[in-house]
Amino acid sequence: MKRFMSVLAISWFAFPPVLAQIEKGYNLVGGSASIGLNTDRFSIYIGPDLGCFVRDRLAVGASLPIYFSDSEFSTTFSISVMPFIRYYFGESKTKFFVHGGLGIGSSSYTYTANGGKEKDTDFEFNSDLRAGIAHFITDQVALEAVLRYQSFDIFDDYFGSFGIAVGLQIHIFRLFKGGGDTD
């Protein structure tokens, strides 16, 4: 019990409760993930986000989207760096938001051709547009439901998809310097 209370006290001082989690000077850490399964393909997407509020309700930051896809005939791996901007609307614990990002990255593609495996690597451009709702279950933690459009321009091919995603964002104070003063 003593150990639990010590951890609780340290956590309280390291991450104090946040009453205004979308104000200038606060930071957000989170992201989203998805898994795709069908009869001939498995895919997984992980997109961690890190940002800071440069003005009340307005956050800027970067995502690190990672994508992997595998089927009987091909395997794709992609990683990107994607700066983003996010804006929140609303005064209650439930807030609407819009989010947009543009990024660059690298993709590798292994496929079966001419009786053997071939590999290609290419530069990629991608975008991520989201409109969603964030419900703050605590002063610091928001669960999100998102309508999302993602696009990838890889190997001279364009891929775009609409989807629904869920995510988690943690809003903490002064994770890293940025976002201006907090007075």
Radius of gyration: 19 Å
Largest sheet features: 9 strands, antiparallel
Query: Could you name the CATH topology?
Result: Porin
Percent range for helical residues?
under 10%
How far is it from the N-terminal to the C-terminal residue, by CA?
Answer: 37 Å
Please give the CATH class.
Answer: Mainly Beta
Q: Number of helical segments?
A: 1
Question: Top keywords for this entry?
Answer:
Porin, 1 helix, 183 residues, 7% helix, mainly beta
Set out the fold topology.
Elements: H1 2-14, E1 26-37, E2 41-55, E3 58-63, E4 66-71, E5 74-89, E6 94-113, E7 116-136, E8 141-154, E9 157-173
Antiparallel strand pairs: 1-2, 1-9, 2-3, 2-4, 3-5, 4-5, 5-6, 6-7, 7-8, 8-9
Characterize the structure shown:
With 183 residues, the chain is mainly beta. The chain has a single domain (23-173), classed as Porin. Helices cover 7% and strands 69% of the residues. It contains 1 helix and 9 strands. Strands 1, 2, 3, 4, 5, 6, 7, 8 and 9 form a 9-stranded antiparallel β-sheet that branches. Strand 1 (26-37) and strand 2 (41-55) form a beta hairpin. The relative contact order is 0.20. Residues 4-20 have low confidence and may be disordered.
